[in-house]
Amino acid sequence: MHLQDMNEIANFKQGSSKGCAVNKLNYPPYIPKILDDLMYSKTLCMDAKQTWGDHYDVHSLYGYSMVLATKKAMDRVFGENRSMMLTRSSFPGVGKYSGHWLGDNAATWNDMKWAIPGMLEFGLFGIPYIGADICGFFDDSPEELCRRWMQVGAFYPFSRNHNAVGYKPQDPASYGADSVLVASSKHYLTIRYTLLPYLYTMFYKAHTTGETVVRPVMHEFYSDSETWTVDRQFLWGKHLLITPVLDPGVDMVWGYVPDALWYDYESTVKYEQLRRNPMGLLIAPDDNGNADGELFWDDGDSRDTIENGNYIHYKFSLKQGVLTMQVTHAGYNDPNNLKFDNITILGIPVPPASISVTHVGTTNSTTTLEPSSIHHDGDKKVLFLRDLRLTLGETYVLEWEVIRIDCHPEEHADQANCEARGCIWDVSKKCGQGPWCIYPQDYGYIVMSVRESSLGMTLDITRNRKYRSSGRPQSRDIDTLRVEMNYHTGEMLQFKIFDPNTKRYEVPVGLSLPATPETDENKRLYKVVIVNEPFGIQVIRKSTGTVIWDSSVPGFTFSDMFIQVSTKLPSQYVYGFGETEHLTYKHDLNYHTWGMFAKDQPPGYKMNCYGVHPFYMGLENTADAHGVLLLNSNAMDVTFLPDPALTYRTLGGILDFYMVLGPTPEMLIGRPVLPAYWSLGFQLCRYGYANDKEIADLYKDMRAAAIPYDVQYADIDYMERQLDFVLDSEFKGLPALVDSMRKEGMRFIFILDPAISGNETQPYPAFERGKAADVFIKWPKHISDGIVWGKVWPDYPNVTVDENLDWDTQVQLYRSYTAFPDFFRPETAQWWHQEIKEFYEKTMKFDGLWIDMNEPASFVHGTVDGKCLGDPKLENPPYMPPLESKHLGLNHKTLCMNSEQILSDGTRVRHYDVHNLYGWSHTKPTYDALLDVTGKRGIVVTRSTYPSSGKWAGHWLGDNNASWDQLYKSIIDFEFDSVFQTGADICGFFNKPDYEMCLRWMQLGAFYPYSRNHNGKGNPRQDPVAWDKPFAEASRDVLNIRYTLLPYLYTLMYEAHTKGNTVIRPLLHEFVDDKTTWEIYKQFLWGPALLISPALDPGVTKVNGYLPNVRWYDYHTVNVGVRGQMINMPTPLDHINLHIRGGYILPWQKPENTTYYSRKNPLGLIVPLSDSGTAEGSLFWDDGEGIGNQVTHNGLAIGDRLKLGVVKVWGAGSTKITEVTLTVAGVAHNLTPEHNVVSQVSAFVGCSFLLSYTSKHCRFLYLNVNN
Exposure of 900 by Cβ count < 10 A (0-12 exposed, 13-18 middle, 19+ buried)? Predict the structure, then answer.
């Protein structure tokens, strides 16, 4: 250490021993207000000469120049070791080399006070290593003054007690070993030494980023004008507020506490228990329970450790009960083998049930802390974690939860209502939107018996009657339950909770389960642990120890009309619960609740929409994935908790959970129908065609514009008064038009609604035959046995509809009574099939069917007169999920809940239980009829869906709005619901789209699996030829790309059908080890290889997108760009960014105006090489519409066989390739390629070779090339 004093420069003479000459330097025309009004007072004459110039000019730089010279000397003396220098005289920039003390102060209360502004000012000058002489330099320091000064001086960056000769000693020991001053000094210096790693890290931040170390309060709270005058308090960095005593004779100090969550350090931290060597963390969460910080660590002595990388740097983050200790740099091995031994977390009111520690490395390992390492002070709300032994320089994740399950999810929760349920009213937890009424820790059920076998286990559990009922007297508690656990496979298990004494409704949806369970425990990826009280099931992934399901939390309730169960989640990364609009792909877990009940409700934030999908995928911190399905079809809601956790509430049935463990997300999804090839083409529809001529004109204009286009629709306009199976007179030419279009390779799809008019004055065969077959939903026989009438689209006969009237009046005056078929019944399926067949054979042909309004939707509530018969609790149950218009009951815009339906086995069920299955039950009979009537595969498109609907149908996302937010949310809505042929109405259904948005939507929609432009009545046309020539051309160009890649898309559909792979997939599915992808929701992939990065905001010319760390080729330019980072991609209005992943071969064909013609073109291959120079891929090819087993390898008809066309090898290198060998059936053929060494693309033609089709599924490996 080197101390530089008297370097102002100080002189005990005035100028020199001979005085100073009279000149303008020593006596300038103007003299500032300085000591003695003399320029050379206590220093040299101003005309003295220095190397840098006259002393007059460089006087104030003398100390700075001395620092520079001393720095050079110290570097030579100390070599590679760091040293410390202090200078009394300073100038801006001196802080790069030296610290500073505030000079020869006096032992006065005033000088102690003014040391704080002095330090803060030097911090602004870039001199963070600053302090005052503690207890004063001059004069004798009184004990109280010195004691208080030792307290505040313990928090000076430069902390030194120093005084002058001739005065009493003032070091702490001089006051006596048992003095108050010694005890106080030891106390606060212990705090300083405890926090030195924090202080050292702040100096690292000052050194690398210029941050201040000691800083005024206003630096952190500058928007709070009260802090602008605070100069008797100061901060260490952002997080430690020091409020010293600066006046004599006081035992209380006034200070300003800014608006944030603050903890009293001395009353909460047991710092004296920290050991000398190990590291520790002190965590003070904010109002949201979050905190962050950093640590810099090196040998503390060597120079240039940062420049040489010889250091350790951590970033710490506490979010929602997860403490991440992330090493960002580990270039130093501490010789003391330091560990993080103790972690103290403030503001934890309840002890966690358990704490897991994950050591993140090449092989992640997770352990659970022993109870002896966890200590909780309930009075102070402090959690102490001890004896952790976490190695310095390694990354760790610690997780703990104290779950606050809401005991009063209804409105109007108060203390009286809460405690009446036996729950705890706790308003002390300021946790955002978290509940104040929470369950006691032992609220729930208790295990009474367990019977285990190699197949699973059976438990009997009993409600803990220490507590009152669920608080809903109308919903009878079920005190005794049975739990059945089935180990279906090594990856899948089921647990089912039900009433063993009274049969309850169970969902009649069959799942694909193995015939025999997995009895070998060694082959199971999971193990199951039962917690006895409160009862809970823990499912643990064996390979990592991660608990992926843990329902051993309070609040489990099972009553007749209210069932609730909660589980802890392994991470905050939860995706799924499809058709519940949310803002991002990953769910926000901050106490958000989503109601689920099928309804004729356009997409909207937190609105329950057309379908119900109680399935979610969870990602674990180890990048493993699992999926959970609740097979329950009653009205329900789910609440996400930040712990992280999830609460289910359902209004009936049983709890029937299926859990699938996959090492990656791609193993979790079901197997959908294989669609007809043509259904992957572009499609057009509009509600509001006035007549068949409008459709004919549209078709002509689309062909003239050369825009690819395979399918035309007719909405309910084609029906006479919106009656199913009856053609309107304005569309009498439609059958001939359809025939003509189909001959030219087009396909046609018509809409059908389930509701059938019952008010006809002339015979209406569909109703008459349905009534005779008793297919319509009725009341239970003990009530009425009559049809439950609603109103939907069909009008009364012989009326003229005044569309200027309000909607409710139109419904009342013009809409006829409608009956709803019960599609569960085999008789209904037969009737529906007959009606579809007769329409196809006697009215007009079609290729697919579009079924709408099958939630089921009704324009009246419950029934025509609004009076639902039977138990009123079914219409307005004791608990109502947060549904749209929930105050109007479950029958709002649908049938009465007490309507009766009959399952295929004859079981009579309430609509209350099966409402969410109506669209599901409608889908298979429609699909079966389509295949039988047309003799071809075709497609069914349905609005209301439930898990497994995708086995028979595709889905559109309903009546969306022409708005930018609906554009981007359409990507999010490709959920885990096994319906893979999905898409939104391009350009929006409601309202008028603007030009830019519609064009951007056409670009995005070109990559929907189900690509259809459709809008609503009363809005202008929005099809591609309805705008201008540039719009049509841009639409044609992007659709040509779609059609070019349809062989690849069709192959993905085949793999979805046979393997359960997704077609549209988020980036995380392919790059699950890259956690950046876990948050991405504005980009998506076709399969593993095509990355789509659309423009989703108005006015943008660039898209900020992420390219994972593999080789990517720009589809348009074949350029290879950056990887593993976010980039700005130029996106003019006529452009969408597409990238192809190296290593994957994509089959392609030259596009035509329909797939009928494009399928006749030779098959090309795009071969983008990986970093290793290889690529592979596959192709599935068949006739595109055949019925039967689509995966049997039985060959193709000659007309469906393909010739190999152009093969484009991307990334072929800059060395000229002169020969290509193509091997067919073991015979090698030499081809001459065209090789562009600039773009590194090599192309060759193989048109003379028929692709071998002994099977329908071909696998391509990279073809040999030679140079």
Answer: buried
For residues 521 and 929, the answer to whether their CB atoms sit within 8 Å is no
Q: 643 and 582 in one domain?
A: yes
Alpha helices, DSSP H only, in 754-891?
765-772, 807-814, 826-842, 872-875
Q: Which of the following is catalytic: 656, 795, 959, 1185? A: 959
Residues of the domain holding 1239:
1142-1266
Same domain, 1190 and 1251: yes
Instruction: Report percent pLDDT > 70 for the chain.
Output: 94
Q: Can 8 be counted among the known catalytic residues?
A: yes
DSSP secondary structure of 653-684: S-EEEEEEEESSGGGS--------GGGGS-EE
What is the DSSP secondary-structure string of 826-865? HHHHHHHHHHHHHHHHHT---SEEEE-STTT--SSSBSTT
pLDDT for 1189: 59
Question: Is 855 among the catalytic positions?
Answer: yes
Tokens for 784?
């009425």
What integer is the mean pLDDT of 300-329? Answer: 91
Asked whether residue 410 carries a pLDDT value surpassing 90, the answer given is: yes
pLDDT above 60 for 677: yes
* Whether residues 1017 and 1150 fall in one domain: no
pLDDT digits (tens, 9 = 90+) for 549-596: 999 888 999 999 999 999 999 999 999 888 888 888 888 988 999 999
Residues 880 and 1013 in one domain: no
Please check whether residues 1022 and 1112 belong to one and the same domain: no
Examine residue 636 and state whether it is found in any structural domain, yes or no: yes
Judgement on whether residues 640 and 549 belong to the same structural domain of the protein: yes
Indicate which residue of 581, 624, 753, 852 is catalytic: 852
pLDDT given at position 1265: 38
Nearest to 612 by CA among 624, 589, 588, 595: 595
Residues 1091, 1038 within the same domain: no
Residue 454 token pair: 């190699």
852 catalytic residue (yes or no): yes
Region 1037-1044: what's the mean pLDDT?
98
Query: Which residues make Cβ contacts (< 8 Å) with residue 673, sequence separation at least 6?
Result: 927, 950, 951, 952, 953, 954, 981, 1057
Count of structural domains, the chain: 6
176 part of a folded domain: no
Of the residues 875, 907, 937, the one at which a domain ends: 937
Identify which of 48, 39, 642 has the alpha carbon closest to the alpha carbon of residue 288: 642
User: pTM of the prediction?
Assistant: 0.71
Instruction: Evaluate whether residue 970 is within a structural domain.
Output: yes
If asked whether residues 1155 and 1186 sit together in one domain, one would say: yes
Choosing from 8, 231, 460, 1152, the catalytic residue is 8
Q: Over the stretch 99-137, which tens digit does the pLDDT of each residue have?
A: 999 999 999 999 999 999 999 999 988 999 999 999 999
Catalytic annotation, pick one of 139, 855, 973, 985: 855
Residue 701's H or E segment, with its range, is: helix 692-704
**Tokens read off for 130:** 């600053």
Mean pLDDT (the chain) is 90
Q: Would 583 be classed as within a structural domain?
A: yes
pLDDT of residue 424: 82
Name the residue type at position 100: H
- Write down the pLDDT at residue 563: 97
Instruction: Give catalytic status of residue 304 as yes or no.
Output: no
Stretch 888-901: mean pLDDT, rounded?
A: 97
Residues of the chain with pLDDT > 90: what percent? Answer: 74
